[in-house]
Specification:
By secondary structure, the chain is an alpha+beta fold. The chain has helices at residues 29-39, 94-112, 143-150, 211-229, 232-238; strands at residues 8-17, 44-52, 61-71, 75-79, 83-88, 116-129, 160-167, 172-180, 192-203. It has a nine-stranded antiparallel beta sheet.
């Protein structure tokens, strides 16, 4: 379903792939320029150290590499030898976000030809209102997600979050994080805010898979769970000008 506005705090795309040795020390100029243009910022290199304890009787294996990051007004981005990630802090629509991802993804595939292993889309909704009772989400959020916390609302709730892990017949895995996050933690809750966080992922193991098709599958799955989590009052709120 389409709405006039949303409560999205962040939308995150991440693709993982097997180690690309070339990306441990340098980044292709064409990819660098595309990321900077698409995300409207400048890439900065940072040292990245991975420590692997493979054998308790042997010293840990230390792997050093470079991770390139970008922080702009609307986006964060990072690329390393085993992953690429984009975070939209100002999400306009899925067409714009997907086009950005597709252009960079296809360049990574063409230039480095890595073995992709996992693709994920994560939608973090921060549903907040400036007024009203802290725990009043009547006709806004599915009461089954709220009721366990309501039982303790007079006991000084500081944070109350839940997790659901799901896997469907098409191998889409979803982690749902929901609840009263409380931006002022560890203080007792005072703000009227509720988190709905949908992290959907899919094993990406076919070189012929179109990234735009994968993104639509993950987006549709997140939308299904979002609709199951909300009630008519929130739909009305999101359709108000």
């Amino acid at each position: 379903m389409s709405y006039k506005k949303n409560f999205l705090d962040k939308v995150i795309f991440q693709v993982n792939y097997d180690r690309v040795d070339l990306l441990t020390t340098s980044i292709n100029d064409q990819i660098k320029l595309t990321i900077e243009k698409s995300l409207n910022g400048s890439i900065v290199a940072a040292n990245n150290v991975n420590i692997n304890f493979t054998n308790v009787e042997q010293p840990p294996e230390i792997q050093k590499s470079i991770k390139w990051t970008l922080n702009s007004k609307d986006y964060n981005g990072s690329i390393a030898h085993d992953m690429f990630q984009v975070t939209a802090r100002k999400y306009v629509n899925h067409q714009l976000f997907h086009d950005i991802i597709k252009e960079i993804f296809e360049q990574i595939r063409t230039i480095y030809n890595p073995k992709f292993t996992r693709t994920a889309l994560r939608y973090i909704n921060k549903i907040n209102f400036p007024s009203g009772d802290t725990f009043d989400f009547n006709n806004l959020i599915n009461e089954r997600l709220i009721q366990p916390t309501i039982e303790y609302k007079d006991e000084g709730v500081c944070r109350s979050m839940g997790n659901i892990y799901l896997s469907d017949a098409n191998d889409i895995k979803t982690r749902i994080i929901y609840g009263f996050f409380n931006s002022d933690f560890p203080n007792i809750m005072a703000r009227r805010e509720f988190i709905l966080d949908f992290d959907c992922s899919l094993v990406f193991n076919k070189s012929s898979d179109r990234i735009e098709d994968v993104l639509i599958k993950l987006r549709n799955k997140a939308n299904i769970f979002f609709e199951k989590s909300i009630l008519p009052g929130l739909r009305t709120e999101m359709n108000n000008n």
